[in-house]
Each structure stands twice: as structure tokens, then as C-alpha cells.
Amino acid sequence: MRYAPAILAGRLVRALARLRSRGGGSAVPGLVVNRIAPGLLPHVLASFPDGLVIVSGSSGKSTTTKMLVAVLEAHGRRVFTNPSTANIAQGLTSALLERTKLNGRVDADLAVLEMDEGHGARIAPRLTARTVLLTNVMTDQIDRFTDPEKVAAYLATIAGRATESVVVNADDALLEELAAGLAPGVRVARYGVTADVLARLLRGLGYSRTSARRAAGGVLVTDVDGARARVDAAGRTIDVRLPSRGTHYAVDAAAALATAADLLGDAFDPELAASTVSALPPVFGRGEIVTVRGKEVEFVLVQNPASFQLNVDSLPENLEQVLVAMGSDVRDPGYFWPVDASRLGRVRIASGSKAADVALQLVYQGVEVERVEPDLGRALDDFLALPNPASGRKTIVFTADSMRRTRAHLGLAS
After folding, report:
1. Which residues have a Cβ under 8 Å from the Cβ of 127 and sit 6 or more positions away?
2. I need a labelling partner for 48 at 20 to 30 A (CA). Which of 279, 341, 374, 391 fits?
3. Which residue, 134, 50, 75, 110, is CA-closest to 270?
4. Domain 286-410's class?
5. Distances (CA, A) of 228 to 87, 144, 238, 240, 249
6. pLDDT tens digits for 274-309?
7. What is said about its interaction partners and assembly (predicted)?
8. CA separation for the pair 83, 65 (Å, rounded)
């Protein structure tokens, strides 16, 4: 019970934060608790009977975590997890406060936690994980992760805390190097795509044809058609409906299925896993379709050049109404210039604090930009006020900062 005072203090701070700002202050309680009881987080995460599973990597963490949790729960496991926006130390602790008893225990069989690469590496030395799932290595958030080798080093630190297994994307050469250096006795499980599917992935993503074949025996994506994928898992071929269009979502599904199969062993049911993943809605912003003010809108989150390229290329051609918003999370807009966004054709409004920069990029790539409006709230209001498009749906492509501001302006839960 030595952590009871810290837990009570955290809950009080959480209540006060929510009184001050509805839905706000989610990280503040964790910040306070970590300051007064730095041992609480590792203590609670060590208490789950079936252990801790960490999900990390540059892209795909949120969707993969959601899929993995759903599959484990469908197999009867009680899982504690964290929201995708709570993947740093204070956010993780805040999430724990929601369910931690005063004795520092959570009523669940295991924890599956998404962790930011940098923050995860910082707290990893205090943790012991049963399994670590790694998605990919990219130059993401260029102000924090200046090159892929730096990200790989962070992920190696996290993977080093695994006692049983590490699950890696076999199409990522840096993750294969990492897997080769794991401690003896830690098994490696793999997932990936076939050479045919790999050939459809577009330029600049750093995938290797040869490494794809090393996923044989693991979970392999054999075909992708829009929002549907065919996957070989546990000796069975299964069809999966994805939360949104694109090979990257199929890879997320393969990651979740490979990790579930590794954790569950003979209890893993591929058909149950496939039907569970197929029933999942998108994680907010990731191909999510919502109705706002009577208008159907698709939200498309882009966080690095690879995700920008893959998401834009997955959109239908000749969309009539597109809003692109780039926010303050993009320190250097030139980071996104390698992306070929010409498929968009026409953008009704470019917005966000980097509106002029993203508009310049689009125009240089042959995209017609009708209006540049830095005030995101005004841009959203005017965009939603447009009549419904004759075909397709209203589509908002945004970076993380603009996503948060969009949801807040529209009164959507995050």
C-alpha cells in the first residue's frame, strides 16, 4: 500500500484538471505521480500475471496496438492498455491511474502498451517485458528522431527488456539487424509481406525484397486490395477487412496477428483473430470516417513522409473536396517535400500554422490550391459549409497537431 498516497494524489489532480478543462489535463496526473512516486509505473507494470507487452516503432503503433488488444480479448484475455495519445511516461502513468487499485494492482491478465520510441527507451531500463513488438524504423518527427539509426538504437534498448520474444517487421533491414543482436534465449517472431505485395509499396520506404522472404514461417501478407487483405497465419490463409485502405494497414494487421500467435501459442485461433480485426473501426484520425454537422468526413493522419505518401496514394482519385492542414508539429516543412501529393489534384483549402508551406509544396507538384487559410477553425467551418460533393466524401488530411486542433474545434472525443 506504499503507493496509495501517490495514487490518491494523482486522482485528485486528474479531477481538478477535468474540472478546469473538460477532457483536458490527461498527462498532468501522471506527471505529478511520477515526480512523487517514480517507482509506481514499473511496480504496476511488473504486476500483471501474464506479463507486459510493449509496442513501439516509427509508424503504425496505435492501429497495431488496438488490433492486438482486440484479438487477445477475443481469446478471453483481460488486457490493460493505454490510449494512443498516452504513449510517453506521464501518459502511461495517467492511464494506469484510471484502473490501478490502491495496492498498485490492475485487474487484468496482461498489459499491452504502445510506447513512443524515445520515451520508451528512457523508461525501458526500469521495466521487464515479456514481449516487444517493433513496427518499423523511419525518420519520424525529424526534430526528435534525426536519423533512422537513432530510432533503431532507441528500439534496441526497448527490445533488450524482452525476456521471452521480440516480434519484428521482416521487411525492415534495421529491425533484422536488431533481432540478430538479441540476448540468447529470446526468440524472434516475424511478419511481413510477399515480394509481390512489397513491389506495390512505393518509393522511399526502405523495404527490402530479400528480407521479406525471411518472414516465411511467420505471418505474411499475400495480397492487398483496398481495405481487404489476405494473410497467411499459423498455417492458415485468412481474409481480413482493414480499418482503412492501404498496404500499411495490412502490415499493422500482420504485426498484431504475429504477436497474438506468439503470445497465445496453441490457443491462437486464426479465424477468430481475422473476424475480430475485421470488425474494428479505425483509430481516430487513421482513415476514420465521421459525420460532422450532417456531413460525412474522412480524416487522414500523416506523421512522416512515408505515411503521407502511402495515405495519399490510397485515396480515391479526383476527390472533389480536400482540406490539407499542417501544424506546429512539423518544425521543418521541407521534411515533407519528398512526398508526391499530385494525386490530390485539387485542394479546396490549405490550413494550419504551416498553411503557406504546405500550399507551396502542393502547387509545385501540380495540385490546384484554391485557398490558403492559416486559421484552422475558420477553414474547418468553411470547408464543412460547402455542399456535399457529387462523388466521394469530404476529406481532411492533417498532421498530428492539426488533428488535435480539428477534433477539439469540432467537439470530437479523442
Report:
1. 42, 45, 46, 52, 54, 161
2. 279
3. 75
4. alpha beta
5. 28, 34, 11, 6, 9
6. 999 999 987 766 778 889 999 999 999 998 888 888
7. Forms a heterodimer with GatD.
8. 9
